[in-house]
């Protein structure tokens, strides 16, 4: 394993007029159940998966039995980086209430919601954003449910807490690597590092899971929950939601600093990518290209073109440029 | 001259925990009146300066005599990428009215303002954003004033229009290069390409201008207008405004896709930088480092630390990481 910069290659270019204006480097890996099938950049580059690994962080919730009865919609929410729209906020509040818990039990911190309607409502009524609006509040609800089962203390985001120990164990098992370290994520939970190849391998395990054991059943339930409720995983206008809606059975998930993963059950493949500079426009364009390459996404669909294909325009609609794949990628 | 990717070097790193999470490559050049003093990356890399060159785009307005009587505040506005706050919107409306023109004469397009108060006002009253809110509406007011003087038609953003021909001529003269092409900017005006070194050379000319001829007087007036009214150049919370406020006589200006320039009259130096991936957090950190290196900015000042030095924290305030200079830069 090497640092994230080692071996990064051009993935996505931004053109304006006849000139290259900006370029994004990075790493992208496609794995099947046996290992790396295809890679651009360095599969050994160490990354923080950030929110792209929420389906891994949710494994102990299901494998422990704590979340065995959870409906698919809540499983999707446990894997979500949601917009804090009313549907997300209401669903988290309901989940917390069903556990006899409340907003004050969360440890994700307050976040102003990205959802335009909810944001407007808060601004114009003077209501305050709260921890339920945090894009990770579904994941944290899952942590709280696991914690009730494990009987741990209230500070469930501390790296030594039983919840996080369980997450780390699952994470290392499915990536097939000892994690070289952790960082504190925006929601204050530890985020375990792995290689891009390790993350793609984990996604291939989700893709090829067949329900033969507790882990495999958990993987199937989580990927199917995401696919069944794309609106819960992100929100209106967001890449995860819009891309899952126009694919058949493929789960995708973004992470901060331009990580993106995909789980392709029909192909038995997992994908992981990281854009070196953290630019989300590039991770969205790159995952769109890879999903198209693998036959999971129609590159001419408006939801694909929105990320890769539509021209860049000025504020008066004049054609200005385009986001393109860099030479040599995909 | 080469494309923007050729010779880019690491400028800014983002760390989380003990691991490098993201890296930004790019080019940075310091020039004096004679040429390049110091450079990282490739001074010959071709870039679009975007809004960083607004003081160049304003030169014909003053050199023609059309804007000879403009107060410093309007000169700052002509160089601005403003937030669309009330002070900016009111100032643009007044300027247009003084010319017997209105919002409908602008060709910059409508933009939802970044200023939180004005954004909230529009959302909660139902008032619509308009072209005056566009961050470039001050530059366009300057274009309109020049156009009145030149007697051109209303489509002053067209590349063949007398206003844009005058801008291109000034641009090529002060960069010392034939522009290799233009792109359409977000505000629909042409944006002429140059090398990073050419842009730094132009800034050095602004820095060393002494009022000896019409161009030199225009350069002094524009840099002094920016320095006298930093609040007009960007807005509250923005890097240009906050950095100019805590420096002595230094003008700085950001541009889309992570360009940043500085004009340092006391040192007789000009600076230009471009982050390859277009990441603004990196261009702000890099210009902060260069201004500190050149003795213009106290790196321990909170407004400097905000861009380079303050830790990254989770939403609950837990220490998570840091933005740092990449090895070898600055």
TrEMBL record, chains A, B:
Pfam families named among the record's database cross-references: Asparaginase_II
InterPro entries: Asparaginase_II
Name this protein carries in UniProt: L-asparaginase
Lineage: Bacteria, Pseudomonadati, Pseudomonadota, Alphaproteobacteria, Rhodobacterales
